Amino acid sequence: MRANVSKRILGAVVSAVVLTASVPFTASAADRLERNVIGGLEYELWNQNDEGDVEFEPGESSFTLSWNDVENFIADMGINYDSQKKNYKYFNNVSFSYDLEFTPKGNAFFGAYGWTRTPMVEYFIVEGWGSWRPSPSLDSQLLGTTVVNGHEYEVFKTNYYNQPGIDGPATVQRYWSVRSKNTVKNNTTNHVSGCIDISKHFDSWGVLGLDTSGTLYNAVFEIEGYRSSGSAKLNSIKMGEGRDSSPLTVYKKQYGHISNTSDLKESYLFMHTFDQYIDDWDSRDFESLKKSSVSYEGTNSLLVSNRSESWQGPSIDLSGIRVFPDETYSFGVYVMQDCADSADFALELQYMDQKGRYQYDTIAEVTAESGKWTELSNYAYTIPKDAKHMTLFIETPDYTGNFYMDNAYAGLKGTKPFTSAENEVRSNLRGDINCNGVIDVFDLTLLRKAILELLSDNSVPPINSDVNGDNTVNVADLVCLQRFLLGAEKLSEPAETTAATTTATTTTTTTTTTTTTASTSATTTTTAITSSTTAASSTTSATVTTNKNGSYEFRISYLQNSGQYDGSCPKTWVISNREEFEKYVAENQVFMSNDPMFSKYSDVDSYNEEIKRYQDDFFSKNKLVAIILKENFSAPYTYRVTQVKKDEIEIERQQNSGDMAVTFWHILIELDKNAEFNDDFKLTVKDSPYLYVTIG
User: Fold this and answer.
1) Mean pLDDT over residues 351-365, rounded?
2) For the chain: N or C, fewer Cβ within 10 A?
3) CA 249 to CA 467: how far, in whole Å?
């Protein structure tokens, strides 16, 4: 562990905000220092000047800890590698898993910690913190972000000159990986567990240009506190557990300043589609925030409901985002409401001025008509001078109804909204539940889910779900939509129906040999499910429908589970009848299950539920392409089929900040029965433009 002459100070108070720095310096006789070995692991406790009360009881692969009114303390447990004089790459697996109960009351954090020699580096991998998040300061070098063990970390470096270290005074470099999302809350007892692959963090640091050539001194789990109180119980630490075998993924300067602002990929400070998570956004009062299947593009948006005041709405803390006072940025979001003919929206900034008073500034304003996604953006907004503690939020003057938001972003000056469908007009057509301008079987699936939710709780029905126009949403609307798709019933339309909407409706109910502009738009803008006219058609065309680039039209489901399978992947099957399908299921049932993970990325509850569709009547009109992709740890990725041709199927791998260890993706592509494939057709998997660096 640390030498007896080494210790660290955590920070200073700047404008009432504690900023920790962790600077080692020569120990004094007044310090309390305990260090020993138990159960094969070294432990250490250090309390500066022995101030306050610190109780520390080490056990085998565990310890209990409490601290009260300390100046600065450290407690850790792990392995000392110094005698072996080897680089981290020569150790099989520098990692650990942990199970922790953590109650911070002020400035404290926990994670992995250690040193290297030649060069001398002090490194931190921060998993959770109390009142202050370790962040790059003005004298730090922000490098980018990395995904390790399924979690995103911000990576930065700080240099300290002529400072004491494990070998005496030297220039000490500090490498930091800090979780983008905190795992704990201050003044609360938090039970957290996880894994830290220290070797993979070193790999990431190397990709980002940091020198990782030194010999490894130690690797420990540690808790630090500065001028705070709290308690912790490390229930277990298991060294060597926690290895992340997924491909190394690094994002260069994702949250930092860059010189080339014309590069759209690197100009974003954050991008939130709400397709998977809404954790970064909080309510300002008691209003409800939840995912909705209504979306501008993609699979979900954020629904804001149960509002009684116009100021109630979603907010995001900007403290972890690199925005600075008196500098200019771009902020924006798409909003939609369907409770009034029109409603005014405002994007606001709350901040504290230099006198400690909270102020409010309007970034952008817009009027949104009912049922239309509307951009609420300002491409050149200057943060007020001396602003601190900044929060971005949305409010609606003179309107308290529900609304949706999607594709929220912040970026460098001039950054525009990220969307593959600029200036797209979304329909307000009854039955078009996903608002993509087409009424099809995917709307039926979404409506079925919405009605089940309405029966179980007080959720808000999605837009356009009152299919029969009786001002209520229930099973009768589902029956009405089913009859419409079968051609047995017409839907009442709004008085004003655009040409694009009318065309989209026609292509859903009649099989054609060419694709209209409206149906092409619906295909290219759908992220999780690509629309097809085949499933809703009552007759089969002799000519296979294709879009303008020659790709077959298709329906698709993306399914995943964590089963085990030792065969080679990817695997593909072209299935033309029920017999072939049953053979496919029999060969691969080892990793087919009712795992609840399925529902996260698909419109079905499980694989077994979905495949009930594939009976003889299905294969009389369609054929099926089944693809299985295997990843050892696929949490950072999702997939999107971009085109299906007779000689190639193209799949785009996209970022997903989820944290589930998923082994397999099942991709089921439904096509017209006349779709043909070459015997040697290719399967191409490429990276999304939003994956900046992918290694391995």
Assistant:
1) 89
2) C
3) 45
